[in-house]
Amino acid sequence: MAKSGILNQERLANAVMTHRVDSLDDELQRTRDAITRRAYELFETHGLPGVRELDDWLTAERELFWQPPATIAEVEQAFTIDIAMPGLKGDDIEVQVTDRCVLVKSNCCAMPGTDGEKIHADEIPHGRAFRLFELPGNLDPEGATAALHDGVLRIRAPRAAESVSRSVPVAA
Predict the structure, then answer these.
(1) How confident is the model at residue 82 (pLDDT cuts 50, 70, 90)?
(2) What contacts 49, CB < 8 A, 6 or more positions away?
(3) Mean of per-residue pLDDT scores for the chain
(4) Is domain 16-113+122-158 given the CATH code 3.10.450.50 in the classification?
(5) What DSSP designation does 159 have?
(6) What is the mean pLDDT of residues 52-79?
(7) What is the pLDDT of residues 4-22, one digit of tens each?
(8) Nearest one of 113, 107, 79, 73 to 93, comparing CA atoms
């Protein structure tokens, strides 16, 4: 019986809160606005209209957000998404689920260094993570779960029951 209690505590420690949202439009618009502002700041530094807009946009995206690598699979009427999230805790990550999309974001800080430490290379991503997955099937947001284990976030989102189409007669 004690072993069961330990397993439950481990599950709770690795749990990541998921919540259903009806629309991700507001979140995506805030993200686009932040990238637009930064891209415009970059444009103002060189002032070359029509030359580097795409470069400015992509640079702004890289500066503001990092996109963790992911694997998406479909198993037993559910989608699983495994995302590399090194150095994060479950409290650092937010997962939002709609009927078609999964949004993963994190506002983590840079990893602290020790006093007197001189960094020669740092390839571990830091800052705000942002990843949107549009899946090829309807999801059941209420059944979605997420857990972080060994730096990998695993999200499981069951498929929703398929909706049945029907013909609707038109009244004259």
Answers:
(1) very high
(2) 43
(3) 79
(4) no
(5) B
(6) 87
(7) 344 444 544 455 656 566 6
(8) 107
* Residue whose pair of structure tokens reads 């290379």 in the numeric block: 121
Beta pairing, strands 18-20 & 93-97: parallel
Q: Which long-range contacts (CB under 8 A, 24 or more apart) does 3-7 make?
A: none
Give residues with Cβ within 8 angstroms of 63, minimum separation 6.
38
Q: pLDDT tens digit string along 149-167? A: 998 999 999 998 766 556 6
User: Domains of the chain: which residue ranges?
Assistant: 16-113+122-158
The encoded tokens of residue 105 equal 């974001």
Residue given tokens 């309807």 in the structure block: 138
Q: Residue 132 and residue 105: Cα distance in Å, rounded?
A: 9
